[in-house]
Amino acid sequence: xxxxxxxxxxxxxxxxxxxxxxxxxxxxxxxxxxxxxxxxxxxxxxxxxxxxxxxxxxxxxxxxxxxxxxxxxxxxxxxxxxxxxxxxxxxxxxxxxxxxxxxxxxxxxxxxxxxxxxxxxxxxxxxxxxxxxxxxxxxxxxxxxxxxxxxxxxxxxxxxxxxxxxxxxxxxxxxxxxxxxxxxxxxxxxxxxxxxxxxxxxxxxxxxxxxxxxxxxxxxxxxxxxxxxxxxxxxxxxxxxxxxxxxxxxxxxx
Length: 254
Prior knowledge:
Layout: H1 2-8, H2 12-29, H3 42-46, H4 66-85, H5 89-113, H6 124-138, E1 143-146, E2 150-153, H7 157-169, H8 173-196, H9 205-253
Antiparallel strand pairs: 1-2
Helix pairs in contact: 2-4, 4-5, 4-6, 5-6, 5-8, 6-8
């Protein structure tokens, strides 16, 4: 029950991504779908299987492991804190879209130039390290508990994660993808505007007008509607009071 309360406390984008990750894992475990149907495959994508542009970011493995739990823990904590720093859920989703697009560009590039080590079937670790890198940059002074034992400065966490993957999993390119794209996004979003007074990664206006602006208009209209309803209620109460007073005066006159 406590886990559900914690989950319910996450922002909307974080909850949605976690649900998608867990749902795909369950579907693989019950053998409704196979991991090969979700992996990054350029030939399959070009053949029309466009869901492979999204699912590789949501699949860690088809096998349960302690590493999977740690990855879920870190990405949920990092993503929820990042989402709270943005003005709206759409701004957060836009940054995630840019980061994932950058990782996909790297993946396509390495595929077409024939660099085999750079051709990754699953991009979950790249996505995770992208999110964690942004988290570490936005919260430099924060400390994080690693494996429920070690307390380390958050700013060093992406590099320690990279070292652990090299030591135990013998695969670093996934982490490098995420850290590299995370650094580019952070620099364009935070550092670049300080020097050139322009935000290249700003949410496009047409997306804001499409998803956020109507909500703001509705919120602006709701107080007026509520105010009119209150005025109507007050008016009815005054009319009733006047009628009662009028009846009392008539009785006194009689």
